[in-house]
Automatic annotation (TrEMBL):
Main location (coarse class): membrane
UniProt keyword terms in alphabetical order: Cell membrane, Membrane, Transmembrane, Transmembrane helix
Signal peptide start and end residues: none
Keyword Repeat: no
Coiled coil: none
Membrane topology: Multi-pass membrane protein
Organism: Giesbergeria sinuosa
Domain of life: Bacteria
Transmembrane segments: 31-49, 61-81, 87-109
Protein name from the UniProt record: CidA/LrgA family protein
Length: 127
């Protein structure tokens, strides 16, 4: 499992080096790990799948994923008074952003699917 974590960190470091060294325009607040995950994906495709060490490291991370929600829960508890003061704006923003993301997703899916194929018209009968 330790070697699996080491490989994850190596790919994250490689992503950081690539983004900062080549000044690549990778989106997101943390572009290094995004590039590292892309490199890891390419390596896994090239290799044909993860090794047992990498698989056990990933399962260990997924098993403890709920711990990553603790800071968000603490933030909600600490700033509860602000949430109570601005609840209407938060609810409106959540509803509108959800509807907007659903609409954009539907439009992207429609564009990716393309137009449905029309069956060819039957050929006219010859006398």
């Amino acid at each position: 499992m330790v070697s699996g974590f080491a490989w994850l960190l190596v790919f994250q470091l490689a992503g950081e080096v690539m983004v900062r060294g080549l000044q690549l325009p990778v989106p997101g607040p943390v572009p290094g790990p995004v590039m590292g995950m892309l490199l890891l994906l390419l390596a896994l495709i090239w290799r044909g799948g993860p090794s047992d060490n990498l698989r056990s490291a990933g399962q260990g991370l997924l098993g403890n994923l709920s711990l990553l929600f603790v800071p968000a829960g603490v933030g909600i508890m600490v700033h509860g008074h602000r949430i109570a003061d601005e609840w209407l704006a938060l609810v409106v923003a959540l509803i509108l952003s959800t509807l907007l993301s659903m609409a954009v997703t539907a439009l992207v899916m429609r564009a990716c699917r393309g137009r449905p194929q029309q069956p060819p018209a039957p050929a006219p009968e010859q006398p």
